[in-house]
Amino acid sequence: MLNNMSTNDNNVSICANCGKEGDNVNNICNKCKMVKYCNAACKKKHRHKHKKECEQYVAELHDEALFKQPPYPHGDCPICFLRLPLLDPTGKKYHACCGKVICSGCCYAPLYDHRGNVVREKKCPFCRTPLPKSNEENIQRYKKRVEAGDPIAMYNQGSYYREGRHGFPQDTNKALELFHRAAELGHAKAYCSIGSIYYRGQGVEIDTKRAVHYYEIGAISGDETARYCLGLVEKSTGNLDRAIKHFMIAVVCGDSQSINKIKQMYSEGCATKEDYKRALHSYQEYLGEIKSEQRDKAAESNEDFYRYY
User: Fold this and answer.
1) For residue 68, which of 262, 253, 260 has the smallest C-alpha distance?
2) Where are the beta strands (DSSP E) in 65-148?
3) What are the strands, taking DSSP E only, across 19-118?
4) Residues 71, 97: contact at Cβ < 8 Å?
5) Do residues 218 and 197 lie in contact, with contact meaning Cβ atoms separated by under 8 Å?
6) pTM for the whole thing?
């Protein structure tokens, strides 16, 4: 915590360097935003005294935001209103016709018309638009959703460009462009994908610092995969306590990879039995929140609901 506060009890600004008081003391430290100076010269003169305390305070604020448990990232199914499961496509599916993400249980359930008869034609469970009959038709739907500013469509299409799938050429630059657009519209997983491109050097030079930056933004925004990646980075550098914190937060969001990592760390003596028990309890809570009879039936049927996605 900063010791040399820039205001007194009467909320009068005080220069952290020379002690001058008054309304003209308004040159704020660019990093911590907590101390003020009467001019640039005082700020420069005081910099070497303030630097260590400033960096410590900024780091504390950063960690406070970074390790705060985010809200559940996947939302609820718009049909059954139960939490959407993590797995995709086995647990939930994005529909380019209406831009909705629907759980496998509601996709599996039969559709009925206004007379109560089962609809035989396969349609979107939400908007009742017939499912695409070809990959080309689905690509056209995606393009319309991207043009309409749909961040999920942007992210998915960016993934197709990154991997060269579903008729899209492999193009890292185009993928990054779409990921950045999706991220700016609030799609947390897009930050993780940007980070992964730089971490692995997929079509770009490896840049671990930049990768971690995007992983952190994604994790703070609620993406459990970005959180898992941060845990791996911290573990690889020996910061085991920070790694466990990241894995624990990801487990609450339903990330099975993270619980496996905590189990591994426990077997290696890097995590406590209490850590592992807490992770198991959190994961069981997650499974209880997403469980439904219809979803269980969908999983048992192993039916391929969507040929094109």
Assistant:
1) 253
2) 92-95, 100-103
3) 27-28, 36-37, 92-95, 100-103
4) no
5) no
6) 0.84
| pLDDT above 70 (res 256) | yes
In the chain, count H helices and then E strands: 12, 4
CA angle 192, 198, 200 (to 5 degrees): 95
Alpha helices in 109-187 (DSSP H): 135-147, 151-163, 172-184
* Residue found under tokens 């900024």: 58
The pairing of beta strand 36-37 with beta strand 92-95:
unpaired
Q: What is the pLDDT of residues 23-65, one digit of tens each?
A: 888 898 888 888 899 999 999 999 898 988 898 888 888 899 9
Q: For residue 30, give Cα distances in angstroms to 43, 51, 54, 197, 205.
A: 10, 11, 10, 31, 30
142: its two tokens: 């995606």
Cis omega (within 30 of 0) on the bond before 89? yes
Q: Is 271 helix (H, G, I), strand (E, B) or coil?
A: coil
